[in-house]
Design a protein that fits this description.
Layout lengths: L10 E3 L2 E3 L7 H12 L3 H14 L11 H13 L8 H9 L14 E2 L2 E2 L8 H12 L5 H14 L11 H13 L11 H11 L3 H13 L3 H7 L3
Antiparallel strand pairs: 1-2, 3-4
């Protein structure tokens, strides 16, 4: 099996590797329910818990989103609520989901020809490329904001990792870009963001500290008054 060079930790799932919980299909959830039917509920719980852990928590989707039903089944498996006596109810609930895969191609965020199925698909280099495009005026502030918002929505929000995890630095920058107009974030912040990303690969705690120190010296009131974008 080919191993990924991604900073994200993939886990083995049978003959496949899953990068995050968004890659679960109904077929994969049925496999978990079959384990419970075979009396292996503890194994099913452990598999879901590990997948949630590498994904930085559960995605948050509203109840009108068809993906929410699948995650509701998975949450019940992890909590140990799915047992031999009620597993058929969850199998029927899963059958009400109208799409085989959680991938919704028409909703896939795209940046300059590259698709990002969910936030777990974005790497340090990708964020640096977005920042470069923006700083070089090859992308507008609105394009950056629209992409980052779309990326977050595709995953039900950005994952949450401890600051000791390099992945947390990626999402810290993305979350700041998501508030690009509200804060506001400017093109002049790009060099500092890129330095934080550079340091975050090896020393995420120091990168977080640098980011906090950088923002301490920003005159937010002046930015808001000036209306600069």
């Amino acid at each position: 099996m080919k191993k990924s060079t991604s900073i994200h930790e993939n886990i083995e799932w049978g003959e496949r590797e899953l990068r995050c919980i968004h890659e679960m299909t109904r077929s994969a959830v049925r496999e978990l329910l079959a384990l419970i039917e075979d009396g292996k509920g503890k194994l099913a719980q452990e598999r879901v818990s590990k997948l949630v852990s590498v994904s930085g928590g559960w995605p948050g989707y509203c109840v009108t989103d068809r993906r929410a039903t699948t995650y509701e089944v998975l949450k019940n498996i992890e909590a140990g609520h799915v047992k031999l006596e009620n597993v058929r109810e969850f199998i029927e609930l899963l059958g009400s989901v109208t799409c085989e895969s959680l991938r919704l191609s028409d909703q896939t965020p795209r940046w300059k020809g590259t698709d990002f199925f969910c936030p777990h698909y974005i790497e340090f280099n990708d964020v640096e490329r977005i920042l470069d495009d923006w700083s070089k005026d090859q992308a507008t502030s609105r394009e950056v904001l629209d992409f980052v918002e779309h990326l977050g929505q595709s995953g039900g929000g950005f994952p949450s990792y401890p600051q000791a995890d390099p992945r947390s630095v990626i999402y810290a920058i993305l979350e700041n870009l998501e508030s690009l107009y509200a804060q506001p974030i400017l093109r002049e912040d790009v060099p500092a963001f890129k330095e934080v990303l550079r340091k975050g690969r090896r020393n995420p705690r120091e990168a977080w500290n640098d980011l906090h120190q950088y923002f301490k010296q920003v005159d937010w009131e002046e930015r808001l008054k000036s209306g600069r974008r």
